[in-house]
Design goal:
globular; binds magnesium ion; 313 residues; 7-stranded parallel beta sheet; 14 helices; Rossmann fold; binds guanosine-5'-diphosphate; alpha/beta
Length: 313
Amino acid sequence: MRGTLAREPRALARLVSGVENRTPGWEDAMKALYPHTGKARILGITGPPGGGKSSLTNRLTAGLVDRGHRVGVIAIDPSSPFSGGALLGDRLRMRDVSTAPGVFIRSMATRGSLGGLCQGARDVARALDAAGYDLVLIETVGVGQDEVEIVKAADVVAVVCVPGQGDGVQALKAGIMEIADVYVVNKADRDGADQVAADIGAMLALSGEDTTDREMVFPTNSLSGEGVEPLTEALLDRAARVEHAPERVSERAREEVLLLVEREIARRVRAGLAEDPRLESAVEGVVTRRSDPYSAAEALLGLFGRMEVVTGE
Ligand SMILES: Nc1nc2c(ncn2[C@@H]2O[C@H](COP(=O)(O)OP(=O)(O)O)[C@@H](O)[C@H]2O)c(=O)[nH]1
Ligand SMILES: [Mg+2]
C-alpha cells in the first residue's frame, strides 16, 4: 500500500495482482487506497477486434507521456476461455511504450475474472490512480455486456470504427452508441474511411446530438500516427470537463455500490443453498413436475427471509 502510494512500480504490480486475483486482504488495501484516488481520468477505448485499438492505445500513450502525463493502460484481453492469459500480440505492440517511465501496462483476462470483469477493471484502475497515474486507458472489445459495463465506468469513451466492416456503423447501434463521447475512424488510410465518417455523422445528426461546438468524429491512422494528435486533444478536453459533471460521478458511484451489494447477496444465496438438501428436493420437485420452478423459488426465498441467510454470513 505505502509502496504504491510512493509510486514504486513493483509494489503497484503486486497490489494490482492481489486485487485482480482477489487475494485475501485485497479489499482492505482498496479501502485504504480509496482516499488517495479520484485524480485519475479513465479513458475507455472500445471497438471491434482487429480495429486497431491496441495500436491506437500505444500511440495515444506515447503522446500523453510526451505531454508529461503518467499513463496506466489496462488491456482487457479477448482471448479464448482456454488460454485465459495475456495477449502476447498486445504486449508486443505496446512494447515501445511499455518500458517508458510513467507508463504501467496490465492485461486482464476476460474469463474467470473473480468478482466480475467490470469491478476488477475498476479496482485496477483505482490502484493506478492511487499510484499517481493521472490517465488510465482501458482497451476493451466493444461486444458483450461486461465490456459495455466497463466503458460505462470510464470518464471518456472513444469508440473505434474501421472501414470495410460491412455494416460497421450498424453494429454501433447496439448499446455502445449512447455512451460514446468521440468516434474514431481508425485505418483512415483505407478505402471507405470517409464513408464511415459520413455514416457516423449522419447517425449523430439523426440522434439529435448537438455537435455544433465540438468535433465528434476523428479519422486516425495508428500505423503512421496521423490524426492521433487531434484525437488526443479531444480526449484530454473531454476528460477535463468531467469535473463539471457531478451527476455522472454520483450515478456511477451509486451503480458501483448497488452492484457490489447485488453481487454479494447473490454469492451468499448460492453459498447458502449449495449444500442445503432443500435445494435438491426443490429441484427434484421441478424435474418430476410435482412442483414448478416458480413455487420452488418462492419456497426457497421464504427460507432466506426467515433464516437470514442473506444478511448473516
Ligand atoms: N492499415 C492500417 N492498419 C492498422 C491501423 N491500425 C492498426 N492496424 C493493424 O490492424 C491490426 C489489428 O491491430 P490491433 O491494434 O491489434 O487491433 P485491436 O484488436 O483492436 O487491438 C494490426 O495488424 C495493425 O497493424 C491503421 O490505422 N491502418
Ligand atoms: Mg487489442
